[in-house]
Specification:
single chain, alpha+beta, Translation Initiation Factor IF3, Alpha-Beta Plaits, 3 domains, 6-stranded antiparallel sheet, 4-stranded antiparallel sheet, 4 helices, 39% helix, 35% strand, elongated
Length: 255
């Protein structure tokens, strides 16, 4: 009788222990599966592909800026001014003859520089030795071909005694803001094509876009590969290549 009572008392305890052990096993399996699932999710989320897309477009400058410096020099200030005025009028006549209207011509104020020398006979006292007067003419026009032709001819006036210094014209393109948006889209499309090719060759497929970053525009002379971290802006040529690079990161998924 005692034996049966003790056996009956031990049986519930064994059941509880077995249930507890089974619960621990099940809990450990569930935890392991959840951990493994989280690891797989993290691995999937970590599979990304970053590629660069390129877009290049040739543009033609639509603004030309040209600077001409006219000088007048003489020992006497009035004579220096007369020399400057004569040269200035001659340059204006030259520009009018090349088809530049007054609205495209801007004139600066006259800059006067006084030159001195030391007089040895008077204990090195400073005396005026002459004057240099300068006046700048700036031409701004949309006719870039006309400005290029005139810039190559103006120095002929030196043969007439005109003291003239011509700087190289600068050529600009006014549509860069709109062009930047267009090139960004083209470069992003190029990046996606590259990413799809790479992912497909590796047995995957491109998923959603994770990040996109555009670099600075590189505006260079045609066929130039010059680049800088802050961007190139060529003003020497009428024709220019505008280059944009976009770095795009995609999520990579298994097919």
């Amino acid at each position: 009788m005692e034996y049966r009572i003790r056996t009956d008392l031990l049986r519930p305890a064994a059941v509880v222990a077995a249930a507890g052990a089974l619960s621990l096993i099940v809990s450990a399996a569930v935890a392991a599966r959840a951990y493994r699932g989280r690891g797989e999710d993290a691995a999937r989320e970590g599979r990304t592909l970053a590629v660069k897309g390129l877009a290049v477009k040739r543009v033609r400058s639509d603004i030309g800026v040209w600077s001409i410096l006219v000088r007048g020099e003489a020992e006497d200030l009035k004579q220096a001014y007369a020399s400057l005025d004569a040269g200035f009028k001659r340059v204006r006549t030259f520009l009018a003859g090349r088809g530049f209207p007054d609205g495209e011509i801007e004139m600066s104020a006259i800059d006067t520089e006084t030159h001195y020398r030391r007089d040895k006979e008077e204990n090195g006292a400073r005396r005026v030795s002459g004057y240099s007067l300068k006046r700048r003419i700036t031409v701004t026009t949309g006719d870039v071909d006309r400005i290029a032709a005139a810039a190559g001819e103006v120095t002929q006036l030196i043969g007439e005694g005109v003291l003239v210094v011509s700087t190289a014209p600068e050529y600009h393109y006014s549509g860069l803001a709109e062009l930047k948006v267009e090139l960004m889209g083209l470069a992003a499309a190029d990046a996606r094509t590259r990413a799809e090719e790479l992912a497909g060759n590796a047995g995957g497929r491109i998923g959603e876009l994770q990040d996109a970053r555009m670099g600075v525009l590189q505006i260079t002379r045609p066929h130039s590969m010059e680049t800088t971290s802050y961007g190139v802006y060529d003003t020497d040529t009428i024709e220019k290549d505008v280059r944009a690079v976009v770095t795009v990161t995609f999520r990579v998924e298994q097919p």
